[in-house]
Structure formats: structure tokens, C-alpha cells
Write the C-alpha cells for this entry.
Amino acid sequence: MSAHPRNTGTGLRTEWFEDIAVNRSASERRAASLGTRRTVKKEYQAAWLVKAITCIDLTTLAGDDTEGRVKRLCAKAKRPIRDDILEALGLADEGITTGAVCVYPTMVPYAVKALRGSNIPVASVATGFPAGLTPLPQKLAEIRYAVDQGAKEIDIVITREHVLTQNWQALFDEISAMREACGDAHMKAILATGDLNTLRNVYRASMVAMQAGSDFIKTSTGKEDVNATIPVSLTMVRALRDFREFSGQIVGFKPAGGMKTAKDAMLWLILMKEELGLPWLQPDLFRLGASSMLADIERQLEHYVTGRYAASNRHPLA
């Protein structure tokens, strides 16, 4: 997954974040400017959208998931763009795939089998996803189960109560234990930012998660009332930048939930480019947690190639 050393954590350093204030109105103004100050058109937009596909964690997290659905999703992950569109773009031999496939722990064996030989990692949610209110021993057992089944990436959920009560030691200890349970699997810490009330809490939770050794910080489970937003993402990427300055270590970012369109993908790519630079436009440091977004991106690429918009059902996911 990574072309750079993993985040080893730093120990809990509350002085790095306790006095931080986040100006919500300024964050919202900055977020609103992203889609208006910079425009990407024609072949450049097509290139950016292909880049977005390579960063997607193609996801199914439904109660009625089956082996058949996971197999179909994995087939789409291996061939996310129709062959005729790839050929028209001159990318037929580039091996374009999504960044990963993300499923529940019991679905991991099906995904591993379906993706064998593809180099696409399987990501698994764990730790009592989405609420995260399972007792810690069961959370750790669930992580170990998913890793034993072949998951290379684990998306954990934090206990929101620790953030809301400012119990940073408890949050740090919990995430550290989860990181240890992951072993060689990369860990993405889901902060469930829609439950954290303030951008200041988002910044603080981001910093504690990175201090505890998270390889990625992730906005949402996709199950909250409010999921990934640009102001929240801006706060988290600023925390990433600060953590790199404090520790010298690099951590990835994953927005997830509520992202459905190619326009959404472009906004987050622009955010990463402007705030963190080109290294964070690679799948080892940036992922988009989405499913239906891929269908709209493929539809936009077909429009670029043919000049016509296809019906949505011409680009099925699974």
C-alpha cells in the first residue's frame, strides 16, 4: 500500500492540539472557494477522473451483502472502466484498477478469493462498525479475524464518547491497541466526524489518532447523519500537515460517505492538491470511500470520449 515508512506514532502529546482553535466560518469560505477558483476541463478533467478511480475504495457495507455481490464488486474493481472507453483514452494497457475493495469482516474471504492475482488490497471495516460501541476485547478480536482472513487494510471506528468528553488518554490507548492488533495490515481510523459536534474536536481527534499510529485518518462510516464534507476534510488535512511538521511522519486521508458524483471526486482531488501537494494524489496516501461515485465518473469519461451522456444503468457496479 505504501511507498514510505508507516506511521509509528509519537506517544500522546496533548500540547500539539489542546490550544488549537478552528474558525468554522473561515473553513467554510475556504471550502466554498475550491470549486470556483480552479477549473479543470476536457482532457485534463478526464485525467483527473481516472486518477480518482485509482484512489477509490470500492465499498459494499450492506446488511444483505452476499458472496455474489462481493464477487461482482471485485470484478468491477479490476475493470472499473469499460474496455472501449479505456481504448479511446489510450489507457488500455495501463492496468487501471480501484485502490481497494472494502467489505465487512465476514465478506473478506470472498473478496480475497475474487481479487487473487490482481494486487488490489482488501480493506475490512472492524471494531463494531459503524457505532464502535462493542467492548474493546471483541473489537480487537474482530480486527485479528479480518487480518487472518486476508485483509490488508483495516478501517477501525473510534469511541466518540472519548472525544466528546475530552478523554484523550482513553482515545489514544484504544487506537494504540487497535493498531497493534492490525499487525502488518494498514489501519485507517474512522473519526465519525458527523458525531463530533465541532471542527475543534475533529482536529483534536485527528491528531490523537495519528499520535496513536494510524496510517490513515478517515472522515466517516457513511452511516452518520452527516458524512464527508469539505470543511471537515479541510480541518483533517490541516491536522495531517501539522502532524508531519511535528513528527516528520506521513499519514494518509480518506473521506467517505455521501460522495456520489464525479464533481465530488474533483472537489476532493483539488483539496488534496492545494493543501498537501501531488504526493497526496496517490492511492498510498489518499482514498475515496465510495461506490456509486464510480458509475458517475465512468459516465463522465464516456461523455468525454463520445460527446454523449449514457444512462446510468449502462455503468453498473455490481
About this structure: The two ends are 25 Å apart (CA to CA). The CA atoms of residues 192 and 220 lie 4 Å apart. The mean pLDDT is 94. The beta strands are 56-59, 100-103, 122-125, 153-157, 186-190, 216-218, 252-254, 288-290.
